[in-house]
Amino acid sequence: MLADNLKIVQGKIEAALQNRKEKKETGDAVTLVAVTKNHTPEVITEALALGVECIGENRVQEAKHKKEVLPAGGKWHLIGHLQTNKARQAVALFDLIESVDSERLLALLDEEAARIGKVQEVLLQLNIAEEEQKTGFSKEEYQAILPKLDAYKNICVRGLMVIAQACTDVEETRPVFAKGYACFCKLKEARPEVDCLSMGMSNDYTVAIEEGANMVRVGTALFGQRDYSLKF
Ligand SMILES: *Cc1c(COP(=O)(O)O)cnc(C)c1O
Whose CA is nearest to atom 6 of ligand 1? Predict the structure, then answer.
């Protein structure tokens, strides 16, 4: 099941890379983040055994439980909104925090990382789709934080994360992803070390890759429907 789904997703990733109209500054390889939220810890073991390297979880508590019951392995990404009161736990748990969406949170993560002598890798989440309920930096907030990033000595900004709006026609997401790519290119000019552009989920990752994503966060297409009755 998972093995078959993984092959299909990997095939579509390759095809989307071939479909790009131009060479992208994000390179020509894509990192697949397997999103295992609301699935059992066992699916993580299965995914890692099949060669998946990155695991995506959206809740600190759930990730903590899973890491406690599993042997060490995989790179763990936080992809969901992080409450500031969980910053300490998040720094202890995650290799990459993709969902940094406010300066206050970034400052707290820096403090917590300094406390344990870690350099925390993060992505800045941009609210390009401008949906009311979506988190992420607005254009104005993003412009405001850019010149201040170097002050956070225990933070390494690896790049950007973008979530497209839900829509009936996936083509509607293309302009959002194109904007995300433009933001990435601009950021890379100022900060050449930046190398991650995380865009695309099960229903839109091929469009995201065509537009320049080099990291996709895929759950349902790999693991099927989430089980919301699971408690962690
Ligand atoms: C749940 C989630 C995903 C994966 O969604 P699927 O549609 O199941 O692929 C990706 N990114 C974020 C931020 C998520 O919360």
Answer: 219
Q: Ligand 1: distance of its center to the CA of 212 in Å?
A: 18
What's the pLDDT at 129?
A: 84
The token duo for 133 is 């309920």
| Gap from CA of 35 to ligand 1 centroid (Å) | 6
**What's the whole-number mean pLDDT along residues 128-147?**
89
CB distance 38 to 228 below 8 Å: yes
- CA dist list (Å): 14 to 9, 17, 33, 181, 208: 9, 5, 15, 19, 13
Full set of structural domains in the chain with CATH: 2-220 (3.20.20.10)
**Residue 201 CA to ligand 1 centre (angstroms):** 5
Distance 117 CA to ligand 1 centre (A): 31
| Ligand 1 pocket residue status of 202, Cβ below 6 Å | yes
Which ligand 1 atom is the nearest neighbour of the CA of 35?
A: 4
pLDDT of 92 strictly over 80: yes
Indicate which atom in ligand 1 lies nearest the CA of residue 217: 10
Residue 64 parent element (H or E) = helix 60-69
Q: Which atom of ligand 1 is nearest to the CA of 202?
A: 9
Q: How confident is the model at residue 70 (pLDDT cuts 50, 70, 90)?
A: very high
Task: Look at residue 131 and tell me whether its pLDDT is greater than 80.
Answer: no
State the average pLDDT for the chain: 97
CA–CA separation, 125 vs 159, rounded Å?
9
Where does residue 79 fall: left (phi above 0), alpha (psi -120 to 50 degrees), or beta otherwise?
A: alpha
